[in-house]
Amino acid sequence: MNAQLQDYSHKRYNILTQEWVLVSPHRAKRPWQGQEEEVINDVLPSHDPNCYLCAGSTRANGMTNPDYQDVFIFNNDFAALQEKAHLGTVREGLLWAEGERGICRVVCFSPDHNKSLAQMTVFEITKVVKAWKREYKELGSRDFINYVQIFENKGAIMGCSNPHPHGQIWGQSTLPNEVVKKNHSQRIFFAENQESLLQTYLGQELEKNERIIYENDGFVILVPFWAVWPFETMVVPKKHQQHIALLSEMEEMDFADAIKNITAAYDKIFNCSFPYSSGIHQAPTNSEDNEHWHWHMSFYPPLLRSATVKKFMVGYEMFGSPQRDITAEQAVKLIKSFL
Question: Is the pLDDT at 90 greater than 50, yes or no?
């Protein structure tokens, strides 16, 4: 099957979202004369007094950050969601709007301004994992928060306006679109098979060993069969777990080890600080039975051929469906070579 997929255009099915991606491996050989991004290799200081995320700095709202030593979390000064949104349901014919309450927080991974997860130690990243767990439980315990989205945008190319190592956590009243799709697919599969969808998928991937990048006692890093982005990866716990709050101390370190390995490998692919958006999809924090959920973390890097060539989602991707040129299997070989 793998050999047949390396030379001819085909579609691959995403079992989590029930959507298709067009794969065109023959297009990877075409010459590139399009947009090339600027590579910024500035040497950053360990502390920047002008950075509003650094320890001791004053943010735009006038508040001063403490002299934090590891992970620092605060409510976003320019939050996309409001905790006290007063808008209810507004309907007029086909026009429909609903109020959405939520809380947005910023998570500074480290006080070192010049570090990313790739430069941090497993011990340091484990502290970030512990903070994610605390925030998932704390936000999820609120009666108006039904989903907690943990994510990171790394690099200016991903719209990140500050190089200080940080991510975000948004807790909101309803399930976002991607989560609705994954919730539906996993619920149906679990009801029919009494096993999580990703547990079954992971077993097949481990047996075939064509898209596995790295594994430790608790986690597997792989390129999903249906990957959209050129170097997209997914970190999956081997054990069926609904959310990260269920991680043991050993599993916290295993998760941190997986994050360290994939982010460090990314930086070596094109010898640059590899940009990406990453996020954790996990069980909603509503009162429903979410036994069908198998949490996972995805990395969506936009680079295609080099540090300066970006994969744009335009044209057919905007009006038809996602499309990629290099196959998942080709991406695996390159990423694994840098572990």
Answer: yes
